TrEMBL record:
GO terms for cellular component: apical plasma membrane; basolateral plasma membrane. It is a multi-pass membrane protein. The keyword RNA-binding does not apply. PANTHER family: SOLUTE CARRIER FAMILY 22 MEMBER. It is found in: Apical cell membrane; Basolateral cell membrane. Signal peptide: none annotated. Belongs to the major facilitator (TC 2.A.1) superfamily. Organic cation transporter (TC 2.A.1.19) family. One of its GO terms (biological process) is monoatomic ion transport. It catalyses: 3',5'-cyclic GMP(in) = 3',5'-cyclic GMP(out); estrone 3-sulfate(out) = estrone 3-sulfate(in); glutarate(in) = glutarate(out); urate(out) = urate(in). This is Solute carrier family 22 member 7.
Amino acid sequence: MKFEDLLLETGGFGRFQILILAMLCLPRINLPMHFLLHNFLAATPSHHCAIPHQEAFVNLTMEEVLLISIPRKPDGTFSSCEMFSQPQFHLLLNSSLQSENKSLIQHCQHGWVYDHSQFTSTISTQWDLVCDQRGLNQATATFFFIGVTMGAVVFGYLSDRFGRKTMLLLSLVCSAVFGMLSAASVSYTMLAITRTLTGVALSGLSLIVLPLGMEWVDVQHRTFTGILSSIFWSVGNMLLALAAYLVREWHWLLVAVTGPCLLSIVCLWWVPESARWLVAKGKVKQAHRHLLRCARMNGRKNFAAELFLSFHLSQALTRMAKDKKMEGSYSYISLFRTPVLRKISLCSGVVWFGVAFSYYGMSMNLTGFGLSIYLSQFVFGVIEIPAKMVMYVLVNRVGRRQSQAWTLILAGLCIGANVVIPKPLTSLRSVVAVMGKGFSEAAFTTVFLYTSELYPTILRQNGMGYTSFVARLGGALAPLVFLLDEVWRSLPEVTYCAVAVCSGAVAFLLPETLNVCLPEGIEDIE
């Protein structure tokens, strides 16, 4: 007997499952508020070198002070990282002249002056992470995703060993603690460490929430569950734009996006452990109790039927548990021991890297489209919802494999298209960027659903942990690729495009899982 048969005996998809999904929505909403926080936490407003003895130029306007103190770039704007070693008063007579003597130009010597019209403070303005220190600013996101990468390995293993709910609670508690410590950071080093640890903790949420929900639903509602969970990610995207718009100071913004973790902890006490995992671990009595609770809430209130169900479940669960115990214990190495599972693991790793690399590459580039950073973030969140709705139909009509491959390839092509579209055509660039973001989110939505169906129950969290590890490597590298614009301005976009298209092609090598029962053991895969 398969576990899906037992779920049908307990009422299939009913109030019990709906309540579980509702309880798991809040942690899911909280994830993008941290994962994409770098857009606002480390935003760099326009700035120029601080000008010494500026009070000596009381008869000059601010524009004139800048003219004699700051050299212009080829596009006519004032340099952000250079200044004249001494005032160039002759430029007041003819501003089109520029000093030919390069020895008069030097790097900023007295700090920087920032435009605070959009942000009260960010970590860039707090610790002057600009110009030569620009790499440290981008590295903040990389440190966070390195933490998420490490957490994927840790929580993937621990949730398969100690249970989904226990590790999810631990993840939430640690996320709240390290998130608040990040907000209290008094140095860049402290912020880098606490954000890395926050990434480790949040990885548990990213890894466990979807599989925990899916392990309580039947085959017919797996797609619905995956899409619903993904929609809450988009809601979090939009709420991040609202929170950042209302809270312009980076310390309090961190507090605002961390606070929901505390509410999630309260909500999670009601959520039961995965009965599917309990069966796989031989914990029949606990699984039996949760399934009976599921049956009662789903309307199976007839005492005689429940009595029969109790006996029926005990016998079936005991047989299933014995089968699982005979299969032994498993680790990440088990993902590569058998031929079919090895192919799945290698190909899904490439796909996850491409999905995350292109998604975060687009999500962390909110400028150049003619919209404010807040509106861009909100629009990018809004476009994800219809993309998910379309995917709900596509993955059930054309299948998971085709949907995964083509959404990723089209996302890459949209990124590439904006390389050749001229910068002045901001409206066209915005439309293409929004389309690309929609395809990218559709690919991310599909990959979560698809991967959770590819791996057997006894290895599902290990599989999700491994693929999440590879994805977070992509997420960690994505912000650093922006630094390649010093080599060639369009090199970051070309890189994102190439990786997305190539990884999308690899998705064609994966097996189809549409309308297939979730595999319980390795023999179901092989």
